[in-house]
Specification:
The protein is mainly alpha-helical. Helices cover 66% and strands 0% of the residues. The longest helix is centred in the first third of the chain and has 18 residues. About 7% of the residues have low confidence.
Length: 146
């Protein structure tokens, strides 16, 4: 992901853009902002009518999945690899296979994520880069045509 963001920003040594030394995790505000991003994502999913279908396939209560998502995002953004330390490699596609992930569901997921990114990530270029990278990840989860 760092390579993708560096390519998008066309920089390698600015403190305001991701580099191997300055990660997106650090740029968005570390643990506190990463947890806020994970929680806002699920808050939006739980309340937005546009995301009702997506919310319906998630096990309730959302407490455990919020924590796991925070742990995943922590490592994915370049922070501590909390998810891998607890559960091993994320194997995201395999973990999502039991759920019908269609292109439409991917769009609902991105709707929630983009709303959360807008609220949590102040830097517009970083927000756009994260949205693009997460969009690619979300597309990889698609396992149904409809």
């Amino acid at each position: 992901m760092i390579k993708l963001l560096k390519k998008m920003f066309k920089t390698d040594d600015s403190k305001s853009h991701p580099t191997p030394q300055v990660t997106p995790y650090q740029l968005i505000g570390g643990e506190e902002a990463t947890r806020k991003l994970a929680n806002r994502f699920y808050d939006i999913m739980a309340t937005a009518p546009e995301a009702a279908e997506l919310y319906a396939i998630h096990p309730l209560p959302l407490d455990m999945i919020r924590q796991k998502f925070f742990e995943f995002l922590s490592g994915w953004l370049g922070g501590p690899s909390l998810f891998e330390e607890k559960y091993g490699h994320p194997r995201l596609r395999a973990r999502h296979m039991p759920f019908p992930v269609s292109p439409q569901l991917r769009e609902k997921w991105m709707f929630c994520m983009n709303k959360a990114l807008e609220e949590v990530v102040q830097d517009k270029m970083l927000r756009m880069g994260l949205s693009e990278a997460l969009g690619q990840l979300a597309s990889h989860m698609i396992n149904r045509d409809n």
